[in-house]
Amino acid sequence: MQENLLQITALHKTYSNGAQALSGVDLELKNGMFGLLGPNGAGKSTLMRIIATLQRADSGRACFNGIDIADQPMAVRKALGYLPQEFGVYPRVSAQRLLDYIAVLKGVTNKKERKEQIDYLLDQTNLYAYRKQAVSTFSGGMRQRFGIAQALLGQPRLIIVDEPTAGLDPQERYRFLNLLSEIGEHIIVILSTHIVEDVQELCTQMAIMANGRIVQQGSPRKLCEALKGKLWQKQVSKSELRAFQEQLPILSQRLQAGRLQVRVLSDTAPGHGFVAVEPDLESLYFSAVDV
Ligand code: ADP
């Protein structure tokens, strides 16, 4: 098995309207599933587009297996599978033909090999029956699955998926995440998302991004451990919540079976009937992004 390495050093990017999307991002990724979590506007897509060679940073470096991504984009593209948040235009050619075309672009020149890969991916993404249909006629979920198929063509060594499960129903989501995790054992897969469960279920390593910076990085389990003994929970009524909000550092509140479940992050027991709970990724996420 080949070990792959993506090294990102001091990446900065400010858009012409003044929006500071990346303010010094450092990351080092090896084989495996890497989850990049962050709220909307954190800078995830900008970072993904820079790694996918579609955009340039103002300063800093991104290298894949020693190749500078900005200097040699073509070399990186051959090893890359990219599933963007949205494709602009959906062409009026069949899924099968479009995949064939993309495979050629990715350097799969052997026709038999192309057919094998395409048939396998059409099957894996549940699109085989629709292979002769134009991609422009596909539903949202089918387009998403087509996006997955094209990203996996050419046996990439680095896969970037940006908000991949957004348009999928639960069954499709499960199938897609399974496929990704199978592939992710041997290559680098970056899963950029604001959905905590996607990362929790799949990723061995992760980072949390907020305001253009990496605010936490490590294995989900290790990162959660840091909250051990500091997380407290209680079910409260709406009126109680108002009172607690004034007194306690409330981390999150969510409705569960019609009752409000409130969590507090505190080094010491907050009293008032709050009990200690095991840390989970969602609490870690809330504590890191301060939402
Ligand atoms: P995320 O993917 O985490 O939602 P983005 O990278 O899309 O984050 O956005 C980071 C910041 O950069 C946001 O403030 C966003 O408004 C801004 N931004 C993103 N793309 C552009 C663009 N093409 N032009 C101007 N500002 C942009």
Describe the structure.
The chain is of the alpha/beta class and 291 residues long. Helix 3 (95-105) crosses helix 4 (111-124) and helix 4 (111-124) runs antiparallel to helix 5. Strands 6-7-8-3-9-10 form a six-stranded mixed beta sheet, with helices on both faces. The chain has three domains: 1-79 and 156-218, Rossmann fold (3-Layer(aba) Sandwich), CATH 3.40.50; 89-152, no CATH class; 225-289. Strand 12 and strand 13 form a beta hairpin. 34% of the residues lie in helices and 29% in strands. Adenosine-5'-diphosphate binds next to helix 1. Adenosine-5'-diphosphate is lined by residues 15, 17, 19, 21, 38, 40-46.
Which value, in Å, is the CA radius of gyration?
21 Å
| Average of the residue pLDDT scores | 90
Bound compounds: adenosine-5'-diphosphate
The 3D shape can be described as globular
CATH homolog superfamily of the largest domain: P-loop containing nucleotide triphosphate hydrolases
Topology-level CATH name of the largest domain: Rossmann fold
Main attributes?
single chain; 291 residues; alpha/beta; Rossmann fold; 3 domains; six-stranded mixed sheet; four-stranded antiparallel sheet; 10 helices; 14 strands; binds adenosine-5'-diphosphate
Explain briefly what this protein structure is.
This protein has 291 residues and is α/β, with parallel strands linked by helices. The chain has helices at 44-51, 73-78, 95-105, 111-124, 140-152, 170-183, 196-202, 220-225, 238-247, 281-289; strands spanning 5-14, 20-30, 32-37, 59-64, 67-68, 80-83, 158-162, 188-193, 205-210, 213-218, 231-236, 250-256, 259-265, 275-276.
